[in-house]
Hints:
The complex is a heterodimer. By secondary structure, chain A is α/β, with parallel strands linked by helices. Chain A is built from six helices and twelve strands. In chain A, strand 3 and strand 4 form a beta hairpin. The relative contact order of chain A is 0.20. At the A-B interface, strand 8 and helix 2 of A face helix 1 and helix 4 of B.
Amino acid sequence: MSHRNGRIANPAISVAIRMEPVVEPVVQLTGVVAVVGGFPVLAGADLTVHRGEILLLRGPNGAGKTSLLRLCAGLLPVERGVATVLGHDLSVSRTAVRAFVGMLGHSNGLYADLTVTDNVRFWGATVGATDDEIAASLARMGLANRLADVPVSRLSAGQRRRTALACLVARRAQLWLLDEPHAGLDAAGRDELDATLREAAAAGATVMVASHELERAGALATRVVELGGGLVREVPMGGPA
Amino acid sequence: MTTWRVARLVAAKDLRIEARSRVVVNQVLPFSLLVMVLFAFALDNDTVLTRVAPGLVWLATLFSMLVLVQRAFAVETADGALDALTVAGVRPSGLFLGKAMAMAVQLVVLEVVLLFAAIVLYKVDVGGAGIVLLVTTFVAATTGLAFVGTLYGGLASGAKGRETLLPLLMLPVVAPVLIGATRATEAALGTNGASPSEGWPWIGLLVLFAALFGAGGTLAFGTLIDA
């Protein structure tokens, strides 16, 4: 596999990642405190995430999984502690890191009146993706068929989720932050998502997944952490679910 | 990605959404024409209508613009696209300029239709002497309105009750455009004996307004949507 212009040049891998700048570790949190609505969702959290890892964040509702993802995306301010993502100190600037991050939350970020292809093309264009990369992103999520020219408003919830994932693939982000990504997907869609995340990690991306589907996401993850009481605790692989 | 490239990308996306949904053509244009017809019913006097036509055209433009702005940001917030744009690190200045460009294009179409409606319904005479002033007025006022609409649309997009909040916030701010554009249009059309030369000072006001809100929006839009 060779790297050219910061992209994976091996055509066998359809998930391409923008590799520059190369920073390691990708996420480094030390004693991080973050507050939402006056409540400390993170209370001195420590976490290190390395390139190519697929990290599962687990924990009960309200444990701070989504907040941790939002903090890594530069959407939630750091009250105390040190948070560095892809080399950017989030206490100094929360916006610089965003161009290298792809986030899929509870909403899909799609335009209902545009077709599937229009949506993927738009989100790909925000990072200068080529037509070939757009086509590969559609194919990767099983959308390069009759669905390609269908307006998103006519899609099922699962098809919309697939489209959102294709948009994420087209952005070739270095850090993927996914909040309940399996929600709404059928069995085939889940398999495609898992394969896509493994390919992305193999290509050099770092993936953080918040999920309640512990069996599914646990099988996908290379490492598991649990959030509780505003802290992050390492869970041994193969340990209790 | 440069601000200008983001602006073109966002403007093209917004215009494509309109081309696919045809909300402006099927809903906003009929609404604006309905407003013009209702003005005619309410005043019911050809002489009065001809005299106040410039003001009615711009008033109908403002009312229709409220619908346009709501629509422009409804497509961004319906499925969290505005949040996704923020997360994606898309330059806010480019986002602001792109949405303003798309809105300006739609406003120009709207204004041309309203002018023709005024010619037909209110018997307005568009002479040749003031045509340059008329075109300049439309360009300057449209630019200012598009900047204000985008700025306040972005401001209200994250607020509760944004549908009712937007007119409350925006209409007082665009009052100078209503006054300036109406006076300049009166001068261009020769309404009430005005001459084209009387309209040019109002163009200065419209250009200043557009420049202020264009610069302010470009600088502040990121902070607004982040908050």
